[in-house]
Fold this sequence. Notes:
Elements: E1 2-7, E2 12-19, E3 23-31, H1 33-37, H2 44-66, E4 75-81, H3 85-102, E5 106-110, H4 111-122, E6 130-135, E7 140-147, E8 150-156, H5 162-172, H6 180-188, H7 212-227, H8 234-260, E9 264-268, H9 275-288, E10 291-293, H10 305-316
Helix pairs in contact: 2-3, 4-10, 5-7, 5-8, 6-8, 8-9
The structure holds 5'-O-[(R)-(carboxyoxy)(hydroxy)phosphoryl]adenosine and zinc ion (ZN).
Amino acid sequence: MKILSIESSCDETAAAVVEDGRQVLSNVVASQVEEHKLYGGVVPEIASRRHCEAINGVVKKALEDAGVTLSGIDAIAVTYAPGLIGALLVGVNFAKGLALSSGLPLVPVHHLRSHIASNYIAHKELEPPFLCLVVSGGHSHIVEVKGYTDMKVIGKTRDDAAGEAFDKAARTMGMPYPGGIHLDKAAEEGDPLSFRLPHPKVEGAPYDFSFSGLKTAVINLIHNASQKGISLPVNDLSAAFRKAVVDSLTDNFIRAAEELGYKILVLAGGVSANSLLRRRISEECSKRGWRCFYPPIELCGDNGAMVGAQGYYEYLAGNTASSDLNARATMTIE
Ligand code: KG4
Ligand code: ZN
């Protein structure tokens, strides 16, 4: 079964053709990051307009690269929640138009479920049940993936998402948007023990996260130093900050797996590209004889292929939509 999939939840206009949820026939991503960089973050209005301009060309190229026309496609999948509402509406409306004109079924896909599904593309043997840490620019969740469309959130951030904290700390250190990747690179050259930063815990909720205090601690350190005319060593500060975030993610994730008896651990979302997080989870899993999976770097960020992968399993579960499908800015993964 071939699915044409569309993603426009944030600042990437993306489309792909995926066969049977696992085989990527094409994957086209048009990134707007260079434009948003000028403003230090995503400007929603600009994102919507750029999706509007790019979507037709991106979908056309996805079909061409896969060597198919719409008549060779069996269903159309689209990200409908959560994300920037104006951005989501572009993809949803485009998909609805295509589905209506072609008579193909329309499959709505949850953005975080699709991040998890990027692992099905890369790891053909991976099947639920497993425990997943979904860490992106907008979310930090520990999710029990009981089945392809059956999920339960057992831990989440109480304030900032991990990616958001990385981006804000990086911005204060003078790095361009999105700063997570730059902070990660700088941290590779720094000493994580050179600064003492808080390692936040949420009282009474051992699987929940809190990153805003840590983010504020770093921002205050930098501002206080700059008021005294001192510039702090960016590599060391990055390393200390990255360690604090990754310690918190790793501690809660491993504890949840131990307590709930999961032996297959999966990372997903943009922050799953973080080199320390990948190393730490791999090490903790191999110590315990558990298996650990994460997507290749090119599938960690937003893309169309992951939407096609999850769209396949949503279709099999009977989750199709009619032409009154709407986009939603927020929606639980459950
Ligand atoms: O999943 P994603 O592409 O978009 C959302 O759905 O939010 O995640 C983007 C986030 C950004 O905050 C970005 O800085 C972060 O993922 N990110 C990283 C790394 N690469 C991307 N954070 C830490 N280390 C990285 N190597
Ligand atoms: Zn995402």
